[in-house]
TrEMBL record:
This is UNC93-like protein. The keyword Transcription does not apply. Residues 489-511 are annotated as: Disordered. It is a multi-pass membrane protein. Residues 491-503 have a biased composition (Basic and acidic residues). Belongs to the unc-93 family. GO terms for cellular component: membrane. It is found in: Membrane. It comes from Adineta steineri. The chain crosses the membrane at residues 42-60, 72-91, 103-120, 126-150, 171-194, 251-274, 341-361, 373-394, 400-417, 460-480.
Length: 511
């Protein structure tokens, strides 16, 4: 079995690589086959993303705690999103024009694999270059995914005789529901691997009002003590010198090897099972013409800012980066690791992942019935309540259940943000590739800003920043909603079908 498996894989790869210049004609393909291929491609992306980000999210959630020495973990995350800004504007359209969406995704996946592998020896010389690779690959990975899901969502809606945005919203809901489960599996793995043994559990913890005091015992004659605040009063500088017992190298290696295996499996799935896709204009052009067209798209990413709706979406897109950084870095460090220890980071974040996945799937369907604006208002109310609660509440070791509730509700809100912001970009802009480049560009800037200020300020100030950005985001999105409704009222009855055809011509390619 093993001997015949490798040649079979090699033969499949040899047949698949030429697909970069091939397309399947959906105009003549039977509808049944077309539908089957649409769903097959969606689920291939869902499975691959789940595996890929089970590994990446699992290791990322531990960066602020596991690789805290010299702030290597936080600096690495900042580098990732700084280069993601650069690559979002420059690389995605160029890469998709040359390699098509499928192989662009594969290329991006290798950057994530390099970062996960670098955690085997988390020193700046390895972590920082690997972070650059993730930053460069992340933009092409996510832009390709966004354009791919948008295209097959439109094709699905067409086969059902529905509006394009219905199919796009539904497919993004399914995708993010699967993708967000990566938080569950990644954190479950980290929790099980990092379970403390009797030998590694070497500290006592006691709570005294708003100040958590930890007594760290290194040996019977060497006892040190440090007072610091957890929760809104948490400061990385105060906590840096006295942290929980370090994770052993063997446990860290085990964790990394598991994540590396998942990342490799994700690459293989995309390479073998995903159909190639590209825009019709690219598929019928020479490589030289594609390069020229891609350079034009680089400029179009910035020209896209001429759209008022894009300007109005910037605060919301920044918010997406800020709020995800908060839950993955500040909440895990200032509320979980500080109050109950690093071993509970994975367990608490499992609840976040479960709620996130259920929320993503649910809002993908709910938005079709009640409208996107009401979903976003609901998510905003949840986050307002959570941020204010965390401003006032001080975590204690015997209140672990509160951390579960906070993480779960944050996951519910984030599931809404991820599906609805992505669907907004996919439906209000016909040039979806440039739109998604802007999406990742501004979201990445939100990550960078958050990772830069996270180690330097108390969490209460981060809460204030989140409240301000969320408020501005909701105001701007309300303006977008008003503009879009007015636009629909002015369009003649015949125009919607024409708009649908235009969207298909721009985004859909033959399966």
């Amino acid at each position: 079995m093993t001997d015949t498996g490798v040649p079979a894989i090699a033969e499949h790869l040899e047949d698949a690589i030429p697909d970069i210049t091939k397309e399947i004609d959906t105009e003549t393909a039977p509808v049944v086959v077309k539908k089957w291929r649409i769903w097959k491609n969606l689920f291939v992306i869902c499975i691959a993303w789940t595996l890929q980000f089970t590994a990446f999210n699992g290791i990322s959630n531990l960066q602020s705690s596991l690789n805290a020495k010299g702030n290597v973990g936080m600096n690495s995350m900042a580098i990732i999103y700084a280069f993601l800004i650069f690559s979002s504007a420059l690389l995605p359209n160029l890469m998709m024009s040359i390699f098509g969406m499928k192989w662009t995704i594969v290329i991006g996946q290798f950057g994530y694999l390099a970062f996960i592998a670098a955690n085997l020896k988390p020193i700046p010389a390895l972590m920082y270059p690997a972070s650059v690779l993730v930053g460069l690959g992340g933009a092409v990975l996510w832009t390709s995914e966004g354009a791919y899901v948008t295209q097959i969502g439109i094709l699905h809606a067409e086969s059902k005789g529905k509006k394009p945005e219905t199919g796009v919203t539904q497919f993004f809901g399914i995708f993010f529901a699967c993708f967000q489960t990566s938080q569950i599996w990644g954190n479950l793995i980290s929790y099980l691997v990092l379970q403390p043994t009797a030998k590694s559990k070497v500290h006592n913890e006691i709570s005294t009002g708003p100040v958590v005091q930890r007594i760290f015992i290194k040996n019977v004659t060497n006892i040190t003590r440090k007072d610091y605040q957890c929760g809104a009063g948490f400061n990385e500088k105060d906590f840096h010198s006295d942290r929980s017992a370090p994770v052993s190298k063997n446990l860290a290696f085990t964790l990394c090897y598991i994540y590396i295996g998942l990342a490799i499996a994700s690459i293989i799935i995309i390479a073998l099972l995903l159909d190639q896709r590209r825009s019709k204009t690219d598929s019928k052009s020479s490589i030289k013409a594609q390069l020229k067209n891609s350079l034009h798209h680089v400029a179009s990413t910035f020209k896209h800012l001429r759209h008022l709706n894009q300007i109005l979406l910037i605060p919301f897109t920044l918010w997406s980066g800020l709020e995800q950084t908060y839950i993955g870095a500040q909440f895990t460090k200032g509320f979980i690791t500080c109050a109950v220890g690093i071993r509970y980071v994975g367990l608490v974040m499992i609840v976040y992942g479960v709620c996130n996945a259920l929320s993503s799937f649910s809002f993908g369907h709910i938005a079709k019935h009640i409208g996107r604006i009401y979903c976003l208002m609901f998510a905003a109310l949840i986050d307002y309540a959570l941020i204010i609660t965390m401003l006032l509440w001080v975590p204690r070791e015997n209140q672990l259940w509160v951390l579960f509730i906070l993480a779960g509700l944050w996951g519910v809100a984030d599931g809404c943000w991820q599906t609805q912001i992505a669907a907004t970009y996919g439906t209000i802009f016909t040039d979806n590739e440039s739109a998604f480049s802007n999406f990742r560009l501004w979201e990445s800037l939100g990550y960078v800003i958050a990772y830069v200020y996270t180690p330097r300020i108390r969490i209460r100030y981060a809460h204030i920043i989140l409240l301000c950005v969320l408020t501005l985001s909701m105001i701007c999105y309300t303006i977008i909603e008003i503009r879009e409704r007015r636009k629909k009222k002015k369009v003649p009855e015949e125009e919607p079908s024409k708009s649908k055809d235009d969207i298909e011509a721009t985004t859909a390619t033959a399966l």
